[in-house]
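Holo prediction. Input below; ligand is zinc ion.
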Amino acid sequence: MKIIYKDGTVAECPQDQELHVLRHTAAHIMAQAIKRLYPEADFAFGPATENGFYYDVDLGDTKLTDEDLAAIEKEMRKICKENLPVKPFVLPRDEAIKLMEERQEHYKIEHIGDLADETEFSFYQQGEYVDMCIGPHLTYTKGLKAFKITQQSGAYWKNDKENKMLTRINGVAFRNQEELDAWEKQQQEARERDHRKIGKEMHLFMTDDLVGRGLPMFLPNGYTVWQQLEDYIKQKERDRGYLHVMTPCIGTVNLYRTSGHWDHYRENMFPAMEMEGESYVLRPMNCPHHMMIYANQPHSYRQLPIRIGEIAHDFRYESSGTLKGIERGRHFCQNDAHLFVTPEQIKDEVSAVCALIFDVYKDFHITDYRCVLSLRDPADKKKYHDDDAMWNHAEQALREVLTDLGIDFTEEIGEAAFYGPKLDVNVKPAVGAEYTLSTCQLDFCLPAKFHLTYVDKDGSEKTPVVLHRAILGSLDRFMAYLIEETKGRFPTWLAPTQVKVLPVSEKTLDYSRDVYEKLKAADIRVVLDESNEKIGYKIRQAQQEDRAPYMLVLGAKEVEAGNISVRNRKGETTAMSLDEFIAQLKTEIADKTFNV
Ligand SMILES: [Zn+2]
Ligand SMILES: [Zn+2]
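Structure of the complex:
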C-alpha cells in the first residue's frame, strides 16, 4: 500500500499504520462527497478512529436522514472509482488563511489561529476537494475499497458544550471486503448477545425512566439468577473463613471525609442530603463501613486475618451516556470484602484470594483472562504512601504468589494507587472490550485513617494492612457478562426456569400436572405451559423466552409408558423415568455443571 507524506514523498506504508492511513483518507473522501452534495458544508475535524473514521461538519439547519447518509456513501464510492490522485502542498500562514477563506472553511481558519506557533500549513487535495491536514494519505482514492457509513450523532466543536453542536458522521473502513464482512458479523453477534435484549426476552430485569436512569430493577427471573450467584459466592467465602455483615448504603459525609473519598471521589458520588444538621451521602463503596466494623472492638494478632464480606449496595453517579443495562448502572451490588492482615500475612492472604478467584473461574469456565500487577514507580516515590519497606515487601509478595501458582502476569509500573499495589484479573468477554472482573488491592493508608490497630506478639499496638478484594466484581455486571457469554442459556443451577413442561395436547394435561407437581416438590424451578398453543409453538416459545436447559414434551406415548421425554438445548431427546431425571438434575445442580 503506497502512501504520500505531506512533503510529497511516496513510500510503502508501514504495516501497523495501514488502517490508520486508510481510515483517515476515508474521512477526506467522505468530506469530499458531503461537499459535493452540500456545498455550504463547513468542516471541523475528521480523524481516523478505532474501526473507521468520522467527520464533524456544520450543515447549518440541514438534518440528515438515513437516505441522505446512503447518498453520501454512494457519492464516496463514485469518488473512489474516479481514482483521483491525492496530492499534498504546503502554504505559509497568510496564504493558508487566504485559501481557507476562499473556501469558506471557518473552522479550519479558527484552527489555524489556535496553532499560533506554526508558520506553515500542509494541505491535501484530491480533485476539487482540499483539506488542511498533516497526512499521510493514500496516493489514489481507489485505494479505499471497503467502507460503510454507520451513523450520525451530535458533537460540540472542540468538545466544548459552550460551542456549536455539529453533525458527526461515523463510518468504518477496512483493508478489504472480508475484513468489513467480519466486522459486520461481529456487530450482529454483539446485538444478538446484548444483555439488554436478552434481559427483556427472558424477563430478567427492567428499567424505566420514572424509576430513574441507570436504576435497573430485577424481575423474578433475574432475581432468581442473582440470588443463586449471591448464595454461591457467599458459600465459597464462608468456606474460606469470611464473616458476612450487612451495613447501610448511606453514611455521613464525615465518614467519607475520614476515608478520603469525599476529597478524591466526590464527582462519582450523588450529592449530599441534609438531615437534622448532618450531611449524608449514598455510598459509592463499602470500605469505610467495614473499617468501622473492625474498629468496633480491640483485636489481637491471634485473631488476624479477619475477613469481612458483604454483597453491598452501592451508588455511583455515572453520566447518562455511559449507562448500559445492568452492566453499568447508578446502583449495583458489589461482591466486596476487606481483609485485615498483619504484614507477615500479606502473601498467604493474597494467595488465598487468588485461589478463590481461579476456583470460581473454573466453575464459570472463564479461561480467557489476563493478570495485571499494578506497581508503584520507584523513580517517583513522592506520589505514593511513604513506606519503602512495606511497598517492597508487598510487591514482592504479589509477584511470588502469582509465580508460585504458575500464573502468567504482566507488571505495570506506576499504575498502583498511592495507597498500595494491586492485582487485577481482566477478562475478555464474547463481545466488547476486556474488563476488570476480579481485583485484590493492598491498602497501607485507610487503616491508619480509621486508627485501626491490633496488639502484636510483643504487646505493642500496630496498624493492620487492608486488602480490598472483589471476586465477581459487581454482581449485576457479572450477570450481564454471563448473559452475553451464554446468550441467556444459563447452566441448570442458575437458570430461572430449569425445566419447562409442555403437554402435547389437552389430553396429557393431567399427566403433565402430575409431573410438574413432583418436580416442584423436588425443589426444581419448573414451569408448566397450560396454553392451547400447538406443541411446535410451545417449544419455540420455550427456547426464546425461558431458555430452560430442559423441556419435557409429554404426549400419549409418555402417558402410556409412564415416563417422560426429556429434550435438552441441543434438541436431543431421551426417554427416562421422572425419578431418574430428578436424580440427574440434582447432580447437575450440586456439581454446578456448566451446561450452557
Ligand atoms: Zn486529514
Ligand atoms: Zn474497599
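The mean pLDDT is 94. That is the main takeaway for now.
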